[in-house]
Each structure stands twice: as C-alpha cells, then as structure tokens.
Amino acid sequence: MKLLPQNNISNERGYALLVAILMLSLVTMIGYAAVRTSSVELQISGNEKLIASDFYDSEGGAINTIEDTSTWLTTAFLTSAETAANYTGTVDVNGDGTDDASVEVRCIEGTGTSIGTLSTEANDLPVMSHTGPPPIGSGYSVKHFIIRRYGVTSRTTAGNAHIQVGAWKVFNK
Most exposed of 108, 139, 140, 148 (fewest Cβ within 10 Å)? Predict the structure, then answer.
C-alpha cells in the first residue's frame, strides 16, 4: 500500500491570505495618510510664501515712501494744515513695472481728525503733537531743530497685507 503525501497547506484554511490582505490594507492606509499629509504641507507652505510676499511688498512700499520724500513731502504738503495734509500714491517695490503697494501719508496730530480721502487705517493714528523736539541722542540740537511726525500706511495692491509706521523728519527752526 502506497502512502499519499499529505497536503499541510490545506490545514491553514486561508489564514495566510487573510493576513496578507490585512497587511496590504494597513500599508495602503499609511501611504494614503502620508500623501495627504504632504499635500496639506505643500498647501501650507504655498500660503506662507504668498503671505510673506504680500508682507514684504507692503513693507517695501512703506520704506520706499519714507526714504523717497520727494513724492509726498512737497511744499503743498508742508503748507497744508496738520489736519488736512495728506498724500496717496503707489509704489513699484520690485521694479518690474507694476505697482505692488499703495501708500497713504498724513500728519500725526493732536486732534485725531479724520481726512475724508484716506482709508480708515490711515486715519487711525495715535493722537500726539505733530511737532516736537528731536529725540535725545539723535544728534540734532533742540535749539536749532524740530521734528514733524507722519504716519505712513502701506497696503499691497491685492489688499492682503497692510503696514502702518510712524516717521519723523527734522526741520530747521
């Protein structure tokens, strides 16, 4: 009598297949989670880049305006009343031929009077005297010089970021 070889595989009853399917499902879920996470991270970094770019454009508009006083610190501006003197313009921050920021300049003054042609942000300045002595340590003599305070509001052309800075300019008494 011949003995037939026994088939030990039939004793597992499909457990290996079940384990393999469960492992593949687990690896698939982990892969999907990794892809989803990296996709969200890419979106976040893209948004951060846009926000930073808008901030730098707005900041560049304010700095350009403060440094280039020839556009706004004109005789007409200086001879206007503190509660009326204002300037509105645009700035091409990166030199590509398109305006990147809009700027508004007005006097910081003691009454808090709003100027109708300026935005709410540009009119929302601290109330303080428009003129005063030069700051201590600035190198300007209190006897011969005074300062005038100005508020510069800069907003990106897209309107996503705005910056407001105070500046003072020194004048002979």
Answer: 139
Residues 52-72 pLDDT 10s: 999 999 999 999 999 999 999
Q: Find the helix or strand (DSSP H, E) in which 29 lies.
A: helix 15-67
Is residue 100 packed enough to be buried (19+ CB in 10 Å), middle (13-18) or exposed (0-12)? buried
CB count in 10 Å sphere of residue 120: 8
pLDDT digits (tens, 9 = 90+) for 127-143: 999 999 999 999 999 99
Average of per-residue pLDDT across 4-29: 79
Report CA-CA distances (Å) from 141 to 131, 168, 169, 171: 15, 15, 14, 11
The separation between the first and the last C-alpha atoms of the chain, rounded to the nearest angstrom, is 128
Q: Could you tell me the two tokens for 160? A: 């996503």
Q: How far apart are CA 5 and CA 115, in angstroms?
A: 101
> Contact, 88 vs 118, CB < 8 A?
yes
d(CA 23, CA 34): 17
For residue 52, give the H/E element and its range.
helix 15-67
The one-character DSSP state at 117 is: T
Is 90 exceeded by the pLDDT of residue 23? yes
Q: Using CA atoms, how far apart are residues 139 and 104, in angstroms rounded to an integer?
A: 29
For the record, the structure tokens of 22 come out as 């469960």
